[in-house]
Amino acid sequence: MISSLRGTVLSASADSIIVEVGGVGFTVAVPADVAHTAHLGEQLRLHTSLIVREDALSLFGFAAPEELEVFGHLLSVTGVGPKSALGVLSHLSVDQIAAAVAADDDAPFRRVSGIGPKTAKLIVVQLAGKLKAPSAAPVAAADLSTETVSQLVAALVGLGWSERVAAEAAERSAAEASETERASVSLLLRRTLATLGPAQAAGQGSARG
């Protein structure tokens, strides 16, 4: 079992990267945020899960051990395979998944490509009581109205970012923004795009490397 990898990023596409470890290149399927922030030549550590099938060995990697744990829980759900589980973790953070399950809300999962209404409901039902309670949101983010945050996230999603990346970026911007910026969605959007990088926003879905 390959539990983790640490090596040099050789290439990155929309949903996978190649990491060289000891002269061997490993192709690893990763969530969108990892693929979009992996820089060629940099050192990267991933927590991994090796999925063994009759016709293939597939490696899935995550930046945090909590994501790997949730990946395992998702695989235990009837009808959820590795690619679907990775899709969920590309669109939703660990906290967003836990919050949706705790609230018995399958809507966030239905928005993930490849997850139908029946499977979305099964995720909520079968993961109930298995996930850690979501972390408290940053205090600075609470200063913003729900409508403002929703508008910011919607704008980022409209530009091609996944809901997960958009929500996390919105929280970071809220924590770092000035009072003036918090009063304007456009100013917050400008700050957030500056953090994410215009090149990534414009070409999130295209292959890299």
UniProtKB/TrEMBL annotation:
Residues 1-61 form the DNA helicase Holliday junction RuvA type domain. Coiled coil: none annotated. It holds the Pfam family HHH_5. It comes from the Bacteria. The keyword Kinase does not apply. The keyword Metal-binding does not apply. Keywords: ATP-binding, Cytoplasm, DNA damage, DNA recombination, DNA repair, DNA-binding, Helicase, Hydrolase, Nucleotide-binding. GO terms for molecular function: DNA helicase activity; hydrolase activity. Has three domains with a flexible linker between the domains II and III and assumes an 'L' shape. Domain III is highly mobile and contacts RuvB. Homotetramer. Forms an RuvA(8)-RuvB(12)-Holliday junction (HJ) complex. HJ DNA is sandwiched between 2 RuvA tetramers; dsDNA enters through RuvA and exits via RuvB. An RuvB hexamer assembles on each DNA strand where it exits the tetramer. Each RuvB hexamer is contacted by two RuvA subunits (via domain III) on 2 adjacent RuvB subunits; this complex drives branch migration. In the full resolvosome a probable DNA-RuvA(4)-RuvB(12)-RuvC(2) complex forms which resolves the HJ. Belongs to the RuvA family. This is Holliday junction branch migration complex subunit RuvA. It comes from Microbacterium resistens.
